[in-house]
Amino acid sequence: MHRLLAAALTTAFAAALAVGAAFGIVALLDATPDQPNNPLVTHETAQQER
Question: Is 12 exposed, middle or buried (0-12, 13-18, 19+ CB in 10 A)?
């Protein structure tokens, strides 16, 4: 009985840890960047040269 209880608790803990890690990764990926996304190189067009 103790082995079954230990296996069930280990499984529940592992599942909770996996869900927490998944939510953490999604939260990190959804975070807004610290700086605006401006291009480093811009190319002038024919209209801008005149």
Answer: exposed
Which structure tokens are listed for 33? 């960047």
Strand boundaries in 2-45, DSSP class E? none
Question: Is pLDDT larger for residue 42 or for residue 22?
Answer: 22
How far is CA 3 from its chain centroid? 36
Closest CA to 27 of 19, 35, 15, 37: 19
Q: How confident is the model at residue 49 (pLDDT cuts 50, 70, 90)?
A: low
